[in-house]
Task: structure prediction
Amino acid sequence: MKKWRSYQIQHGAYIIFRKSLIADLQHAGYQVFCIASDQFTIKIQLELGWRIYSIHQLEAKGSNLLEDLSLIVEFRKLFMKYKFDIVLSYTAKPNIYGNLGALFSPTKFINTVNGLGSGLASDGWVSKIMRRLYKVAFRKSSAVIFQNQDDRDYFILHHIVDQSKTYLVNGSGIDLQEFEQKKNFNEDSSTMKFLLSARLVKEKGILEYIAAATELKKQFPNVKFYLCGLIANNPSAIPANDLDAYHQKGIIDYIKGSDDMNALLHEMDVLVLPSYYREGVPRILLEGLSKGLPILTTNSVGCKETVEEGINGYKIPVRDIASLQNAMRQFIDMPFANRMAMGEASRKLAAEKFSVEKVNQQYLRLIQELT
Result:
């Protein structure tokens, strides 16, 4: 088989999420180069032996014009030096500035849109600028992959990308062997454990979760409401002092991040994500499905795809504390056998719809079509 150079643009954490795709590409005979620009870079290179290159401006926050131009220049220098055949890119900055850096080059691009985020989903001037940038950048794209139909429809409706270039996959995929099904659940509903794991920003439904937990604790003092995540560098970040205060009051059990989500999920009974952020398909929900946990999330873009109502969990309206509280109470009041049946349904959904093997095959078929 002819070997050619492929390439992933992404922060280190996301490269880890794509490690099975990278392995499949290598197994198929492709040379894979990775780009990252954070604290994971050296660790990944040492542990996995991947060839990783740094982009300094990829970590820059905000919309500083000079930094954005510098990012385009950094990408262009790499593309000219290594002459990659195909680029796989993820998230907004690599999708936009990576494409712009490769304009007028023969390199082909496969872009994956991991949700719209808060900027593109709004109706303000930021959204208008981003739509224009995407439209120019995606002229370079050979294919644009979406993780849910709503985002695909948005890009087509706003004439950002031609429909003929668009493809749909079921999230980033989940490794069913890595996130093995949990078998031993707690039968005592009075000591159940709920978990919300996410970036600690308001749009993830953090405050709604805490408010619902506050009320439920009054009647079910031994039920645990875990919150896991790192403090975000974001205007809507939840202050660390507030989280510590809720932890000290015993309302939530606050975990400041985890490097072993598989082990953490293994201790839980129900996974909660009351997000109203424009998700692709949240990674944590795929992990929860694979572990065989019942899911409680919002009837919102990207989240709703992971729940069959009443079968493997519940979908609630966004920003609705009362509905969130009632749904969590339903789990507490639910007979153990019913809760186990929901967990089994989650694992089945993960296997049938979200397995990483199926998602990777879609990428591989597309790559083969382009070569």
